Amino acid sequence: MNAQKLSKRLQTVASFVPEKSVVADIGSDHAYLPCYLVLQGVIHRAIAGEVVKGPYESACNEVRKEQLQESIAVRFADGLQAIEKEDGVTAITIAGMGGPLIASILEKDAECLQGVERLILQPNIHAIAIREWAMANDWKIINEEILKEDEKIYEVLVLERGEESLNTVQLLLGPVLYKEKNAVFKEKWQHEINQWLLVLEALKQAEPTTAIAEKERELQQKIELVKEVLKD
């Protein structure tokens, strides 16, 4: 993977970036995504934010290598603090982190979202945390995609401003994904069921407590819920 050719995961993220938007890529790593978007002519300006010194330096090197210093500002900053008001950012991408971490980044510096029209988020795990954040903060999920690459399954969530109301099934599985129920979706959730069954078995061997009984009930409910969806 490089700035000319993205991984399937990042290519999917890139496909949801609106043309001519000003993008802030948070946790940009090598800055491949913003470099690719500028090189392809999708956007003209971007910010690559990194909070870790090594990846920050890698991003600086990549932007210099592609001679994009006039188009991409690389900033050493924590989360959304990489964004300055004068940037006029209209789209934010955050990829390759856990859902709870992505949600906490959005929550921590919410004032930096002013003027932002679209969020393209790719959680590695626990996408439910992003859906819960969206509901609580007036962001609506307008699209979702699930894909498999190198034996790993990823979800991409696209949010725009608007009221969101999701039920238990939609929160857990994704309002768009559970309707489409493609092969990767079915593979992911069958694997989750299998993992939950293993946990249930382990809990049955443990000394019974109120907390364990509650956990068993919670897992059983999830298993039944997902089985019902996969059966349809």
TrEMBL record:
| Gene Ontology terms: biological process | methylation
> What keyword terms does UniProt attach to this protein?
Coiled coil, Methyltransferase, Transferase
Q: Which Gene3D superfamilies match?
A: 1.10.287.1890, Vaccinia Virus protein VP39
Record Pfam families = TrmK
Q: Which residues form a coiled coil?
A: 186-232
Molecular function GO labels: tRNA (adenine(22)-N1)-methyltransferase activity
Family annotation (InterPro entries): SAM-dependent_MTases_sf, TrmK
The keyword Protein transport belongs to this UniProt entry's keyword annotation: no
The name under which this protein is listed is SAM-dependent methyltransferase
- Source organism of this protein record: Rummeliibacillus stabekisii
